Amino acid sequence: MCTRRRRMSRGGSSLRGADEALRRALDDVRARCDVEARKAADPVHFVHRYARRDDQEIVAMIASSLAFGNVKALCAKIEDALARLGPRVAEIADDPAAVRARLAGFRHRVYRDEDLAGLVIGTRAVQRAHGSLGQALTDKLAASGNLREALGAWVREIRERGELGAGAGGRRGAEHILPDPSKGSAVKRILLLVRWMARPADGVDLGLWDVPTSRLIIPVDTHIHKLSRNLGLTERTSADFRAAEEITAALARLDPEDPVKYDFSLCHMGMLQTCPSKRDPEACEGCGVKPVCRHWRRDARRRS
Ligand code: SF4
């Protein structure tokens, strides 16, 4: 088949046949996603409860940072933390002693009360210093030109201003609650926070930060990693930062301006589908990406 026939038109651009099939499948997954139902099961819904931007930024930081482990359990912990801090989170966050008192005794997996308090206090201090948490990231992105480096500087400033981990003796919770992206991990929860705040308001994401969507990197959890390997978006066996970059680059072939737009629907499909990562007619029944999954692709080609 000649190159011209293999390529299919998409607006002013063109995609290879395989990419076009992938785009169709992922667009279909997005279209079929029950956004309201899935949002209710996603920690982003906590951010939508607040009207003020300063509260939304701190709540988003809390919700994304605690998004670790079983969804039901982590949502209960976020609920607990927010109830302790009250309806005006930013106002309380101006008073470090009050934050520490209200969060006293809080625990979630490896995180202790002082870890969450340091995160809240540091986030508020960065808001105060830069005008907003988003402006702080925009400033650092303008200075470095690289999202990973900008996030590294941004995280370090929040940690320093909140004295996060000071005196913790390298305890895991203090490191893990807001990890440094320069250390190689996928920093899934930080990239999730940035997606929530920077992607245009679409009922899930909030469109509050001035970070170009073309610069975002997909947050890679176990679902996205597994599905991405099955879709050939990455071969990496480790869900690290390089895997996130590879997956994002592959999605950018489908939409260079907003590659991360597929994250929410794909992640939630992965949560519901229980992907076996092998050809399993029962488990794969109804999977939205089955036509482009490497375990089924030969069948789809034979039928077409
Ligand atoms: S078709 Fe099956 S193996 Fe492939 S991604 Fe879907 S659930 Fe996983």
TrEMBL record:
Superkingdom, natural source: Bacteria
InterPro entries assigned to the protein according to its UniProt record, in alphabetical order: CHP02757, DNA_glycosylase, HhH_base_excis_C
Molecular function GO labels: catalytic activity
Pfam families: DUF2400
GO biological process, alphabetically ordered: DNA repair
Protein name per UniProt: TIGR02757 family protein
